[in-house]
């Protein structure tokens, strides 16, 4: 593969950060324990609730030959050509696997944790099995190669863009390439060594260039909210086999918000800069083959229903809030059906019954949290809905 990429490193010193998370032992210390360590038992986990799953349904079963990651038979909207994205990749300050993925994760029952309720976790439910992955662990590793519901998957997190996403991995594992595009983690699969910007789920270099990974929903929520919804869930522990100061986030704090997560500055150049809004405000974004849409998360949680547009004649979209998990879901709404809150659920025009936020009788589109600058950089013509708000709400 051609490996001619810019090696410019952003102004880390501007934010007082000496390097990236995989290499750091220093940072602002934020305590995540009330006392004591999570007891781990290394088990595979009992089945959790079967509700709340969301995943890509575009399948190409022929793509699973060998150990390569399975790919979808449909593409996602890209605002830039693959060659441009490859040329815009730059070094994040570490080499390949300089930020080590977790390849042998250990879990404990979520009921037994001594972690405080408000720490961010990334929740996954597949085929009745629920798991939660604490942000304070993934900030040092960015990728967990795991098995959930019997399926080999990768749960990924990029602290620079505030994105937690899930991918099917087939017979291979994913690692951290050490490169970034638009501040976003560039993963690589260890079978073909193809390069995958996390937010795009698209191959920009290597044998699988131009392919799209199969994705599934990862919910950014809190430990307390996830435990309430999925009491049988299992929680990733910090028994990773790596020596890290897991109680210290090298980028700052989420509770209370501080450091990199609160500043309006970025550490690396963006592909495009939005005209309005705080760089680190949180949006819930979704993309189809036709375009992308983003909903301000704070506004969505406050108003419960927002409408937007992916682009194209039938690109209408609606987002609804799930207050129990401080998240939201995005649906195609080509007929512009009216959606209104009804207690803890929603009424949809033409239907008598009420529906949960994750179960509207519309075509749900995979969505995930992101920092506004990152979403707008990858999708500069995105449809935006809601009022631009300050950074970090709902995390």
What does this structure look like?
This protein is mainly β and 395 residues long. The protein folds into 2 domains: 199 residues, no CATH class; 104 residues. 8% of the residues lie in helices and 31% in strands. The strands form 8 sheets. Strands 3-14-5-4-13 form a 5-stranded mixed beta sheet. It has a 4-stranded antiparallel beta sheet with strand order 2-9-10-11.
Mean pLDDT comes to 86
SS element count, helices = 5
Structural class by secondary-structure content: mainly beta
Number of strands: 28
Proportion in β-strands: 25-35%
Quickly list its features.
395 residues, 2 domains, four-stranded antiparallel sheet, five-stranded mixed sheet, disordered N terminus, mainly beta, 5 helices
Secondary-structure map:
Layout: E1 28-29, H1 82-87, E2 90-91, E3 107-109, E4 120-126, E5 129-134, H2 135-138, E6 143-148, E7 151-158, E8 163-168, E9 174-181, E10 184-189, E11 195-197, E12 215-216, E13 219-222, H3 223-229, E14 234-236, E15 248-249, E16 252-254, E17 257-259, E18 282-287, E19 292-296, H4 297-303, E20 305-309, E21 316-322, E22 327-332, E23 339-342, E24 345-348, E25 354-355, E26 363-365, E27 367-371, H5 372-378, E28 383-385
Parallel strand pairs: 5-14, 19-28
Antiparallel strand pairs: 1-15, 2-9, 3-14, 4-5, 4-13, 6-7, 7-8, 8-12, 9-10, 10-11, 16-17, 18-19, 18-27, 20-21, 21-22, 22-26, 23-24, 24-25
């Amino acid at each position: 593969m051609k490996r001619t990429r810019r090696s410019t490193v952003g102004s880390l010193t501007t934010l007082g950060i000496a390097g990236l998370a995989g290499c750091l032992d220093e940072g602002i210390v934020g305590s995540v324990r009330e006392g004591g360590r999570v007891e781990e038992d290394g088990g595979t986990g009992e089945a959790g609730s079967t509700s709340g799953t969301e995943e890509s349904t575009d399948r190409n079963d022929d793509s699973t030959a060998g150990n390569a990651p399975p790919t979808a038979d449909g593409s996602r909207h890209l605002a830039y050509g693959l060659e441009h994205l490859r040329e815009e990749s730059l070094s994040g300050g570490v080499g390949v696997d300089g930020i080590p993925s977790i390849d042998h994760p250990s879990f404990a029952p979520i009921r037994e944790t001594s972690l405080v309720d408000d720490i961010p976790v990334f929740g996954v439910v597949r085929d009745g099995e629920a798991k939660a992955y604490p942000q304070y662990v993934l900030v040092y590793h960015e990728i967990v190669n795991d098995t959930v519901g019997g399926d080999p998957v990768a749960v990924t997190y990029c602290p620079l863009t505030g994105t937690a996403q899930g991918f099917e991995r087939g017979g291979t594992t994913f690692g951290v390439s050490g490169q970034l595009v638009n501040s976003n983690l560039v993963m690589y699969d260890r079978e073909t060594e193809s390069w995958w910007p996390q937010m795009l789920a698209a191959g920009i270099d290597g044998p699988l260039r131009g392919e799209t990974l199969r994705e599934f929903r990862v919910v950014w929520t809190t430990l307390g909210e996830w435990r309430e919804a999925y009491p049988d869930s299992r929680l990733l522990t910090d028994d990773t086999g790596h020596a890290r100061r897991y109680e210290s986030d090298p980028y700052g704090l989420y509770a209370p918000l501080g450091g990199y997560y609160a500043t309006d500055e970025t550490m690396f150049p963006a592909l495009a800069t939005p005209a309005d809004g705080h760089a680190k405000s949180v949006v819930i974004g979704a993309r189809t083959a036709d375009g992308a849409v983003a909903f301000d998360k704070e506004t969505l949680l406050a108003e419960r229903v927002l409408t937007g547009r992916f682009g194209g004649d039938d690109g209408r979209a609606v987002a609804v809030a799930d207050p129990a998990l401080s998240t939201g879901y995005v649906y195609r709404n080509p007929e512009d059906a009216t959606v209104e809150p009804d207690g803890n659920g929603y009424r949809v025009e033409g239907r008598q019954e009420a529906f949960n936020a994750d179960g509207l009788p519309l075509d749900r589109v995979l969505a995930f949290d992101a920092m506004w600058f990152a979403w707008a950089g990858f999708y500069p013509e995105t449809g935006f809905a809601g009022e631009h708000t300050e950074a970090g709400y709902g995390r």
